[in-house]
Structures are given as C-alpha cells and as structure tokens.
Amino acid sequence: MSTTYIVDGMTCSHCAQAVTNALKSVKDSAEIEVDLAAKKVIVSGFDDESAIEEAIEDAGFDFKGRA
C-alpha cells in the first residue's frame, strides 16, 4: 500500500534525491517516488507518518501532510 504526501520546497532532481535519501535513512526497504511537478512524494512500505514527516522536515523541506 502506498501513501501520497504533499511536500513543498522541492524544485530539482537534487531535492528529490535528498527526500528519497532522508526517507531511506529511516527505512531502507521503503519505496519512494517523487513527483516534482505535483510536489508529491509517494511512499510504499513505510507507514509511520510521524517518522516520514520528521525525515522530510530534517532534510529541509516543508511536509504538508497527505494528498
């Protein structure tokens, strides 16, 4: 099952990689897909929303919650 989150502040492929790396550092087995144009991050295999929010915020991006 996947969950989509809105994340502001992502503008380039480096941003997408930073978000992916931040989430993988918390749960390496998670599958992460970043849609820069839509400002969305789709996460599969990782359902701890507070940990997801913390990882994204610690990476310097603005977590807006579920899409």
What brief labels describe this structure?
4-stranded antiparallel sheet, 67 residues, 2 helices, globular, Alpha-Beta Plaits
Give a structural overview.
The chain is globular. It has a single domain, classed as 2-Layer Sandwich (Alpha-Beta Plaits), CATH 3.30.70. The chain has a four-stranded antiparallel sheet, covered by helices on one side. It is built from two helices and four strands, in the order βαββαβ. A hairpin with a 4-residue loop joins β2 and β3. The chain has 67 residues and is α+β, with helices and mostly antiparallel strands.
Helix share bin: 25-40%
Shape by Cα distribution: globular
In N-to-C order, the SSE pattern is EHEEHE
Assigned CATH class: Alpha Beta
* Strands, count: 4
Distance between the termini: 15 Å
CATH topology: Alpha-Beta Plaits
Strand-helix topology:
Layout: E1 2-8, H1 13-26, E2 31-35, E3 40-44, H2 49-58, E4 62-66
Antiparallel strand pairs: 1-3, 1-4, 2-3
Helix pairs in contact: 1-2
Brief characterization of the structure:
This protein is of the alpha+beta class.
